Backbone:
DNA sequence: CTGAAAGCGCTTACAG
DNA sequence: CTGAAAGCGCTTACAG
């Protein structure tokens, strides 16, 4: 059946069915009943199509209909619980609604992000969702100029509606949880250290505010040096903590599972004192509950975020507001002890 | 600049530049020097395009050129170190070579896989790479009938060339590592248990063969009941081990990080005896080195696999052979002890 | 009940 | 140096 030469078109089918290309077209795209084409012809065409392995040339079809059906998404990473899940759910939802999802992973590189956006615009995407984009406004401005709708997810922008996690509240809750556990289990109350992320990043700064608010509420002062927003990498987190050899109790607010990796590495490398360390992490990883000292993690509500984002697709005249989605806090039971020796 | 109505076309540009659409087209697609269009006109057109925020309608352009530039990939999950990395590298490589990568996540669902393949064929993808597909041959047969090239990655098929990891050898090495460590650290020699995966799955069965070969080489018999290929889920792995309360030393070959989660959960839940457990995992996770009892992990060589796969793209008359890519084995240093009480 | 015709936005031989 | 024309494979008012 392999037809290397030319693929079957509606013209081929028309010839075989002894009908016009128009009739074939409408049979194939399901409008034949409306056009009152005889069931007999319709069936003949459909079985011929099957037989010839015909598949519509979507490129041509959509060009003619001046649509693309493409829903674009830009995402920093796949290899990440949070963004991986976002991409997966986005695809499933888009597909369920009849769109053709095209997701592109841009590695947090602003230029790659913009290139990907341009490409998606060239394909005349119906809408572009920028997830965790480093420069969402640049993308929105470009989309806007080309008449393509854009929506921000995870990280907000000012030129398009944004659906983001309620970082402030979740960070405050997580801070409270860690402080409570330090008090209960170690008889010690803060201040905690804040490790990971970048202060210039909206989410990190919102989380830091929540972190500080909870300390303030409890009357605990946080020294400036306790804020270690050293970026997104396990190495940097480990380096930031390298000089920290706690003699007594200590607590850490870990910003993102990427930083968590560094914190755990530091923790398991401590000569002693590790048993009196408690930490919690903003973001979720299945190995989290198994890490000694980890008292809880925040899980962002991906489904809720996407549901809200999809509600905005196709809507015009939207305000560029921020929609805040609450997160879930997962406290873990009794802390596991650290490795011996 | 927002043009909600109609997007700028080459005809608009032609009018503004007082030139023909043909000239504009060739300026815009870079063939103007070949067509010996005056630099003056070219520059006029280009600045007008810039000014009008023109972006070529790729749909129309590619339809005319009877190409799609699309390179399709089907992948089971994004939210997974291994497949997430494959998707990321695939995209970067495809883009670097001038393709438009479209990757689709199909959740190990055979029907979804097939639907996605059909969709990609409708878009006239130049080539479709099926990664970890449950039924690669069904996809290859369909692609073949439509004149679309297909390549299998990770899981082999018989109707298209396959690039896969050398599961057998890596499993044998990992088995050897675990057995060595058990002997050295616990003074005990096997047999190990094999946990996770499905025997019907090519990779699991190749790994099991390597596992058994290493035991055979050392003259260690493996009881049938030690093979617990219970599928791909943390729960199932944990359930399979639920009745296993080792009194003395024991060792486990963990098939996939998904199962690892279950094994670690089981391990950390043991009332006692956990200190004399050693395991290793086929597949890589950054938290791996931090898990007590974990002596090493296998990392599949994603870059090498993709490099080989890309070499096949566009090649015709390929045999449907299997290309085996060696894996890397990462031994971890001294085992960490388990949690206390 | 069905077909001829125009057109989606491009590209590219062909003819000056 | 440049334009008119045909055509990629479809869809859809329009006219019977």
Residues:
């Amino acid at each position: 059946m392999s037809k290397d030469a030319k693929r079957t078109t509606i013209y081929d089918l028309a010839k075989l069915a002894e009908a016009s290309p128009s009739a074939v077209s409408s049979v194939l795209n399901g409008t034949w009943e409306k056009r009152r084409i005889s069931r007999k012809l319709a069936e003949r065409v459909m079985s011929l199509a099957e037989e010839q392995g015909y598949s519509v040339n979507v490129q041509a079809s959509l060009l003619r209909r001046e649509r693309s059906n493409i829903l674009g998404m830009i995402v920093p990473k796949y290899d990440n619980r949070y963004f991986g899940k976002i991409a997966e759910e986005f695809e499933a939802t888009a597909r369920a609604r009849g769109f053709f999802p095209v997701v592109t992973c841009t590695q947090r590189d602003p230029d790659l992000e913009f290139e990907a956006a341009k490409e998606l615009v060239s394909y005349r995407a119906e809408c572009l969702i920028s997830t965790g984009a480093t420069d969402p406004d640049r993308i929105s401005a470009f989309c806007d100029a080309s008449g393509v709708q854009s929506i921000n997810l995870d990280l907000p922008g000012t030129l398009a509606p944004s659906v983001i996690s309620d970082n402030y509240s979740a960070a405050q809750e997580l801070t409270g949880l860690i402080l409570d556990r330090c008090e209960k289990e170690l008889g010690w109350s803060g201040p905690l250290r804040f490790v990971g992320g970048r202060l210039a990043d909206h989410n990190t700064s919102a989380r830091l505010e929540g972190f500080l608010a909870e300390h303030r509420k409890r009357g605990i002062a946080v020294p400036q040096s306790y804020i270690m927003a050293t970026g997104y990498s396990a190495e940097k987190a480990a380096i930031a903590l390298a000089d920290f050899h706690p003699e007594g109790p200590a607590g850490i607010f870990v910003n993102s599972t990427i930083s968590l990796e560094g914190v755990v590495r530091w923790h398991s490398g401590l000569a002693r004192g590790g048993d009196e360390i408690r930490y919690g992490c903003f973001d979720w990883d299945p190995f989290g509950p198994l890490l000694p000292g980890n008292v809880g993690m925040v899980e962002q509500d991906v489904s809720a975020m996407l549901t809200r984002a999809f509600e905005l697709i196709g809507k015009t005249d939207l305000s560029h507001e921020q929609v805040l989605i609450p997160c879930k806090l997962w406290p873990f039971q009794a802390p596991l002890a650290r490795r011996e020796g």
Q: What stands out?
A: Chain B touches chain A through 60 residues (CB under 8 Å).
